[in-house]
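Project channel, design review

CF: Before we commit to the Acetoanaerobium noterae constructs, I'd like one complete example in the thread so the newer folks can see what an input/output pair looks like. Taking DUF1573 domain-containing protein.
RD: sounds good, go ahead.
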Amino acid sequence: MELNEFTQKVEEVLIRHKSILDIMTKLQETDARTTRAVAKAVTECGCISIKASKQQLSTEVDYSELDKFTSNHIDGELCPRCKEQLVHEIGDHIFYISALCNTLNLSPGDILSKKHDEITTLGKFSLF
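CF: and here is what came back for DUF1573 domain-containing protein:
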């Protein structure tokens, strides 16, 4: 499915939470539910664990190579149940991002294209 097609479908089906205030609060809610689903995968299911520590970054390493020396701090892999829950929660979040774009007459495709161009041009330096 194409992003513009999805965004158009969101426009068609979003009736109840059409106010910008509803959309913004639903966006916050779906973000929190996504975060909660990750936390439950760790604390309730245990399919993944978080082993966080300070990233050890050497000043002698070139910035373009830093990704080889950093970690995402996750051990394990999502089980099918946790993965399904996260797909659902992230899908809801993307739904409300699309709704926000529709309400503000922004094109998610154009936004992603612009961000893609930016990270393509600036590479790893785009995150500064």
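RD: helpful, thanks. The chain has four helices and two strands.
CF: The first strand starts at residue 48 and ends at 50.
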